[in-house]
Design goal:
Distance between the termini: 26 Å
Number of strands: 8
Strand order of the largest sheet: 1-8-7-6-5-4-3-2
Helix content: 25-40%
Order of helices and strands: EHEHEHEHEEHEHEHH
Number of helices: 8
Largest sheet: 8 strands, parallel
């Protein structure tokens, strides 16, 4: 992965048809998705249960862009190696999910993967201040993690602005996860974000049999951001 700050749309397969997951990944890529976002939840760190490394490994042959894996699990350290072997390109963790986040980031990078940090709405930026030099992506959660379809938390827009200043010229992506729509996306892009995770806003109304709906939804988000620049 070469770093660039261009706008990227990363549909979350949490909103996809679980019975056709491989075909869903191929469909969204064909319709303009830049990355594929995989939300891993354990029913402990967050109140939902999704899938693990075996699913990621099964999906890997169907993903030809970037597999962006967001681990909402605790403890997270015992599973880093499994998700790396499953083919994740980016592995993002929450600082609360392990006792030594610096070492966790070292482990991810040591496995040849990009390392991400995900911040819940109530997690302050100073938690990651001394971790940025080991970080390739910071994901600002604009909903509380655990479920799709939640409303966007507007207080996080200023958090994105502050993060952008904190990052400076470091090659770090700023990702937004939660409540991204054509209405909210321009707000966070204006604040400094360049990767937008969208679930229902991409998959809503479409299917593997009607993938053109995914394309329209992706274009609507992208065009709203470009129009606001």
């Amino acid at each position: 992965m070469n770093f660039d700050r261009s706008l990227k749309i990363a549909p979350s397969i949490l909103s996809a048809d679980f019975a056709a997951m491989g075909a869903e990944c191929e469909a969204i890529e064909a319709q303009g998705a830049d990355w594929v976002h995989v939300d891993v939840m354990d029913g402990h760190f967050v109140p939902n249960l999704t899938f693990g490394p075996a699913m990621c490994a099964a999906l890997r042959p169907h993903i030809h862009t970037v597999m962006d894996v967001h681990l909402m699990i605790a403890p997270v350290d015992p599973f880093i190696d499994a998700f790396a072997k499953a083919g994740a390109d980016i592995i993002s963790v929450h600082p609360e999910a392990g006792p030594h986040t610096h070492r966790t980031l070292q482990t991810i990078r040591g496995l040849g993967k990009k390392a991400g940090l995900a911040l819940n709405p109530g997690t302050p930026l100073d938690v990651i201040e001394y971790l940025l030099d080991l970080t390739d992506l910071v994901c600002i959660m604009t909903v509380n993690p655990g479920f799709g379809g939640q409303k966007f938390i507007h207080s996080q827009i200023e958090k994105v602005r502050r993060l952008k200043r904190m990052i400076g010229d470091r090659p770090i992506h700023i990702e937004i996860d939660g409540g991204v729509t054509p209405e909210t996306a321009p707000l966070v892009v204006d604040a400094g974000a360049n990767v937008l995770v969208a679930g229902s806003a991409v998959f809503g109304g479409g299917s593997v049999g009607q993938p053109e709906v995914y394309g329209r939804n992706i274009r609507a988000i992208r065009e709203a951001c470009l129009a606001a620049v």
